[in-house]
TrEMBL record:
Protein's name according to its UniProt entry: Cytidylate kinase
Domain of life: Bacteria
Gene it is expressed from: cmk
Principal subcellular localisation of the protein: cytoplasm
Places the protein is found: Cytoplasm
Species of the source: Methylobacillus methanolivorans
PANTHER family the UniProt entry points to: CYTIDYLATE KINASE, CYTIDYLATE KINASE/PANTOATE-BETA-ALANINE LIGASE
Binding site for ATP: G16, P17, S18, A19, S20, G21, K22, G23, T24
Catalytic activity: dCMP + ATP = dCDP + ADP; CMP + ATP = CDP + ADP
Cytidylate kinase domain segment(s): 12-220
Keywords: ATP-binding, Cytoplasm, Kinase, Nucleotide-binding, Transferase
Transmembrane intervals: none
Length: 229
């Protein structure tokens, strides 16, 4: 008799470097499809902030991994809560961006955060963005996208984003920080930022947000029901 296996909950995995548009595009794709959304970068940002609050060094791998096993995190109505406090803005500072990238190099911390990330996979589906969504967290995702743009364009996008929020910024500093983070995220030994072999490359330097969203929706529709292993 042929065994009928349950159909896995679909996942659209979107990886890419900083300010490539992952969060913006992933949230729009999720809203269009009525899927859940995982901002995995926020989890590394929360870990960096929680460590700072608890006086744990960003280099102390074992203390970070221990801390991660009892993080009280909640995402609700667009806000992020840590131990009941709203930290949505606090995790977006440049300091915490660097901290997230620094704590993210530690294999024990990454392992401790794995189940939490996987728990976001709920019906009817999930759109997840980060650095290792397609390679490590959801390797069976049916749609895998590697979203990118040139470093100069990404720095300009981040600059505009900060200016819109009324945050003063310097374009040259942003470009430098972004390149340092790209290098650290790509060169670490575990789950480095890299295009999964079977991911679709989407270069957005000359695409609008709508064009990027539509390209992903089209590609995902063409992939429905398939698992890219
Ligand atoms: N294709 C695009 N064209 C122009 N601006 C974009 C595009 N994609 C994203 N943006 C803008 O770039 C900024 C950074 O995007 P964000 O989603 O925060 O990137 P990431 O999550 O990769 O860091 C946002 O202000 C967003 O509106
Ligand atoms: N899946 C992930 C997501 C983020 N990280 C790390 C590496 C990144 O520099 C930081 C912050 O990620 P985040 O996606 O929030 O950063 P950007 O919005 O792209 O600038 O966390 C990771 O190692 N793995």
């Amino acid at each position: 008799m042929t065994e009928i296996l349950p159909c896995p909950i679909p996942v659209i995995a979107i990886d890419g470097p900083s300010a490539s548009g992952k969060g913006t595009v992933a949230q729009r794709v999720a809203t269009t499809l009525g899927y859940h959304y995982l901002d995995s970068g926020a989890i590394y940002r929360i870990a960096a902030l929680a460590a700072l609050k608890q006086g744990i060094d960003w280099q102390d791998e074992m203390a970070l991994a221990e801390m991660a096993t009892h993080l009280d995190i909640r995402f609700a109505a667009g806000e992020i809560y840590l131990n009941g406090d709203i930290i949505t803005e606090a995790v977006r500072t440049e300091d915490i961006s660097r901290g997230a990238s620094e704590v993210a190099v530690h294999p024990a911390l990454r392992a401790a955060l794995l189940d939490l990330q996987k728990s976001f996979r709920k019906a009817p589906g999930l759109v997840a963005d980060g650095r290792d969504m397609a390679t490590v967290v959801f390797p069976d995702a049916g749609t895998k996208i590697f979203l990118t743009a040139s470093a100069e364009i990404r720095a300009e996008r981040r600059y505009k984003q900060l200016m819109e929020k009324g945050i003063h910024a310097n374009l040259a500093d942003i470009l430098q920080d972004l390149q340092a983070r790209d290098a650290r995220d790509s060169q670490r030994s575990v789950a480095p930022l890299q295009k999964s072999e079977n991911a679709r490359l989407l270069e957005t330097s000359h695409l609008s947000i709508d064009q990027a969203v539509n390209a992903i929706l089209d590609y995902s529709r063409a992939n429905t029901g398939k698992q890219v292993l």
